[in-house]
């Protein structure tokens, strides 16, 4: 739902809003991560520099010293460290924010079609299980604005990649005509979350379509190339 973080507009999930120990949101276009974090007044924040190669590499952001330095190559970031900002940039791809209220851990995932085919969200949950003891039954997942199923046509390359990981056929794909398919990226990721054991009531789905709402979002497809992005983030507050 569209709300405000201090003076800045932002989209938040009610399932995450109820936790006073975390800060989260799906940003609107052209508002930087620094801008949001500064506006929120997060104490001693660390915002890692990242590059998202559309893969399924997960970074467990540990003690603060470990993230000073080079750019982190990866599409998912998880942490138990207060002040550490897990964040991703998107413009049509799906941002997913995760929170484990039992073990107090959070994560952010960038999942486009390549990340979905590589099941990056499942890799992230596996990393949270291993590092923090997360039980998927307790996990909250918020799926942010992404390109909608009726606005996203894909070709045979995507279909082949999805077939390899058992994601095609599925109700999130619909053949438009020969060689062209509609793909609902959020629906495919919801399915992955269900297979991981997440409860339906613990998932939030933003219905906003980046391609339809260019006032609020950048859309790689609709704007025909890289015009900009929006940020999504989750961080734990220091107690
Ligand atoms: Zn749309």
Broad structural category: alpha+beta
**What's the CATH class label?**
Alpha Beta
List unreliable stretches of 5+ residues.
Answer: none
Major sheet summary line = 6 strands, mixed
In which range does the helix fraction lie?
10-25%
CATH architecture label name = 4-Layer Sandwich
Using the alpha-carbon principal axes, give the shape. Answer: globular
The overall pLDDT average reads 95
Q: Please give the radius of gyration in angstroms.
A: 17 Å
What is the rounded distance between the termini? 27 Å
Quick one: how many beta strands? 16
Strand order of the largest sheet: 5-7-10-9-11-15
CATH topology: CNF1/YfiH-like putative cysteine hydrolases
Number of domains in the coordinates? Answer: 1
Q: What small-molecule ligands were found?
A: zinc ion
Could you tell me the strand content as a percent range?
25-35%
Run of helices and strands: EEHEHEEEEEEEHHEEHEEHEE
Report the total helices.
6
The H-level CATH homologous superfamily, spelled out, is CNF1/YfiH-like putative cysteine hydrolases
Note the main attributes of this structure.
alpha+beta; 239 residues; CNF1/YfiH-like putative cysteine hydrolases; 21% helix; five-stranded antiparallel sheet; binds zinc ion; six-stranded mixed sheet
């Amino acid at each position: 739902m569209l709300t405000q973080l201090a003076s800045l507009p932002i989209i938040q999930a009610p399932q995450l809003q109820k936790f006073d120990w975390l800060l989260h949101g799906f940003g609107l276009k052209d508002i930087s991560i620094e801008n949001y974090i500064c506006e929120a007044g997060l104490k001693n924040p660390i915002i890692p520099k990242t590059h998202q190669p559309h893969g399924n590499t997960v970074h467990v952001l540990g003690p603060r010293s470990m993230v000073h330095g080079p750019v982190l190559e990866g599409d998912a970031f998880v942490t138990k460290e207060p002040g550490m900002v897990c964040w991703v940039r998107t413009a049509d791809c799906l941002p997913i924010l995760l929170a484990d209220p039992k073990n107090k851990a959070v994560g952010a995932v960038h999942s486009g079609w390549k990340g979905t085919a590589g099941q990056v969200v499942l890799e992230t949950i596996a990393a949270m299980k291993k590092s923090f003891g997360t039980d998927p039954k307790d996990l909250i997942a918020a799926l942010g604005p992404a390109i909608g199923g009726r606005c996203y046509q894909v070709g045979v390359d995507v279909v082949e990649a999805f077939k390899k990981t058992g994601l095609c056929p599925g109700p999130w794909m619909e053949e438009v005509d020969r060689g062209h398919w509609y793909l609902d990226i959020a629906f495919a990721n919801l399915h992955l979350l269900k297979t991981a054991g997440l409860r339906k009531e613990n998932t939030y789905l933003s219905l906003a379509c980046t391609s339809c709402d260019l006032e609020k979002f950048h859309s790689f497809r609709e704007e025909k190339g890289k015009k900009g992005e929006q940020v999504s983030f989750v961080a734990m507050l220091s107690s």
